[in-house]
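ok so i was messing around last nite and threw this chain in just to see what happens. nothing serious, just curious
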Amino acid sequence: MLRAFACSSYTAPDFSDEKLRSIVSQSATFNRMAGVTGAMLVDGTRFFQYIEGPSDGLEAVIRRIEQSRSHRLMSPLLDAPIAQRAVPYWAMTRLDTGQTVVSGLINAGWDEFGQRSVAHSPGMELLCSVLRPHFPVANASD
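result:
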């Protein structure tokens, strides 16, 4: 069974772009081994992270996120089963956005009080609309 997890957090005081590049690279390597895909959106002071994959792999990645000293005040926004991946293209990718995008994702409805599937929640629809322009383009000859 696939599961999705999303959270927000604030960067640590000594955070740098070099550190962020290292985190994304190390996360991609670890996530590949765990069968997890995801995206990290950054506005300069806050993170929004979305990851998805098998429950055991996701648990390992969530533990790494919780133990990281690169951020603080982590707030889970979503932890739910999903039927299929929304971001199958990246083990981890980084997208620098403005505060409006990150705030919108953090404040979007992710569970709609259990009334909708995650795939059709306002949060997921917003996330997909932000990420879709960055999805790899299929080769016309494929």
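not much to say yet. The radius of gyration is 15 Å.
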